[in-house]
Structure formats: structure tokens, C-alpha cells
Amino acid sequence: MLRPSTSLPRRGQGPLWRNPTVRALIVQAVLFLILAGFIGYLVHNTLNNLESRGIQTGFGFLEGRAGFSIPQTLIDYTSDSSYGTTFVVGLLNTLLVSALGIVAATLIGFAVGIARLSTNWLLARLATIYVEIFRNIPLLVQILFWYYAVLRALPSPRDSLSLFDLFFFNVRGVVMPDPQPLPGFSATLWALLIAVVATLLFARFAKRRQMATGQALPVYWIGAAIVIGLPLIVFLASGAPLAWTLPELRGFNFRGGINILPELVALWLALSIYTAAFIAEIVRSGILSVSHGQTEAARSLSLPGGITLRKIVIPQAMRVIVPQMTSQYLNLIKNSSLATAIGYPDLVAVFAGTTLNQTGQAIEIIAMTMAVYLVISLTVSFLMNLYNARTLLKER
């Protein structure tokens, strides 16, 4: 006896609107149109309101004269420079303190993180106290502490604290000799570039040789000798083409040399110490994630503790450390905007502060500032992700 078929129709048969893929595309298209319409309405409404109030839009204001001075500039700048130049000056100052903070926080964080796992009771407790104190105090409070309680408490320039009569510490910052390159100094820079490239090539050769023969070469010592020795030889052979401008006290202030603002020092110290407390915990967790059997195997081979940590534990821990450390780097870069609290001339203070108050171009200036921080963060994330891809375990 024949029975009627009870099998369901195959997927994709029937009307087009019953196809799940087509329905998903239609829903996404409708949502996109709604979102685009809403954004278009906001833009149109904003432009109409600005026009009704007589506020001009556009980026033509960047060519206008700034008319104010900036205490720290890494490029040529005067009060006659344009607002576009103030944007570049603020951007460079932000990049400067961010780069210095990332380097210092990484070094301090790794040292403290390893110290927390030390068998030395006193060293481990001191590292724990450091972490618990500095990561639980708000960053803004730490910035104000270093600026007002420490650096602003230094003596006046006439009573500066001196180190070898070359470095002077006072309430106006740190004054140090200023190196002025002479015409022959370019040869030293080329020698440094060649030394770095030669060191990288030597490191690749040493790695391949170790993989083939099992014999390791002292890459760090030889690389350091190349990077330091070759430029030094060229520098001395070319007659030391570098002149130093020494700071001299004239009247109530120093003339000559390099003056590092106390705002930069305070912001750098606060960002580095605060972020290093979090990096220390990241490093500690990364080391603890490595199986203890790895350490025991190294001890059974009579490997020293330093080599075990540097060659076995840390490389395996990096796959846990790097993703979390990327977030801390991004936080440090964004936290640098707190510089406005002490008057450091970063992007927010110079461009989103003074320039915005003078021009009134709020939309353009804030949009540019947000875009800069977004680009910096995405660039750091991209570079760290590239490094993270190299630290991941490769399955065979």
C-alpha cells in the first residue's frame, strides 16, 4: 500500500521571501537604510542650525593665525603659525609622552611582575606593595601628586639641584646639555642604521645555525657590540662631529641646553608607574600560565634560573601577556589626555582646548581629535596583533 510522502520540502524551494539568506539580506538592507537616513537627518539638522547661527563650517580655519605660544614644541612654531601647525605640535607632544610611557611602563612592569614571583620574601612583598598601591590610586590623583607635591616643591632655578654641574633640577623642570650635530654627524647615523641591519641579519643567521646544529651564539652580546661599537668607531673617526650647548644660569633662569618641562616629567612618571602596576599583574599571570613541568625540565638539565626564565618561560608566557598588554598600551595613550589637568601641551590641551576656544569650530576640532586617537589606537593594535601572531603556538 502506497503512503503519501511526509518529507519536508528541500531548503531553497518555494517563494523567495521564505529563503533565510534572502530574508537576512533584506533585514540588513532595511536597517542600513534606516541608520543612513538617521545619520543624514542629524547632519542636515546640525548644518542648518549652524547656518542659522552664523557659524561657518569646514576646515578653512586651519590656515588661520594661531596667535598663542606653546611651551614645548618638537617642530618650528611661533605665535604667527597656523592652527594646522598647533594640531601637529599637539599631536607630536601626545606621541612623545605616549611612547616614553609605553617604554617605561613595559620595563617597570616586567621587572615588578617577575619580582612578585621571586623566592626572595622581601623583594616579592615590595613588588606586591607597589602593585596594590599604584593600581588602586586614580591616575589623575597620581598626576597631581607628581606635579604639585614633588616637582613643584623643587627649589628655584638659582638654587637648582645639580648633578655633575651638567644636569639641573628646579621648579621649572630639568635642564641638561643640548647636543648640536655638526656636518659630519650624518656618517654616524648611517653607521647606526647599518649596525642595526647587520644585527638583525646576524640574529637570523644565529637562529638558523642553532636549529641546524643545536649550538647557540651570544646574539645579545654580539648584537650590542655591533650596534654600539660601529657607530662609536665612525663617530670618533670623523672627529666627534657633535657640539654641546651647556646650560648657564643667567639672571633668574637658565639659558642654553634642553629644558624638559615639569608637566612632561609628571605626566610621564604617573602614566608609567600607574600602567606598570597593571602590566606587572599581566606578566605574573602569564608566567604562572606556563606549566611548572617546563621549569622542572629545565632544572633537570641544570639550566640556570635566568636562562630558564628568558629562554623557556617568558617566550611561552608571551602568548598570554601580549593581548592583555595591548589593552594597557591603548589605555596609556588615551589616559595621556589627562595632561590638561597640569597644562601639558598635548593634543587635547592645545588643539581641542585653546584652538577650539579661539575658533569655535567645535565639530571639526573634536572630530579631528577623536579621529587621531582612533588612528593611533588602531595602529598600536595592528602592530601588537602582528607580534601576537608570532608568539602564538604553531600547531603541526
Automatic annotation (TrEMBL):
Do you know which CDD domains this protein is assigned to? TM_PBP2 (cd06261)
ABC transmembrane type-1 domain: which residues? 91-384
Q: Does the keyword Nucleotidyltransferase apply?
A: no
Pfam (any one): BPD_transp_1
Q: Which UniProt keywords apply?
A: Amino-acid transport, Cell membrane, Membrane, Transmembrane, Transmembrane helix, Transport
- Which NCBIfam families does the record associate with it? HEQRo_perm_3TM
* Protein's recorded name: Amino acid ABC transporter permease
What species does this protein belong to? Answer: Salinicola endophyticus
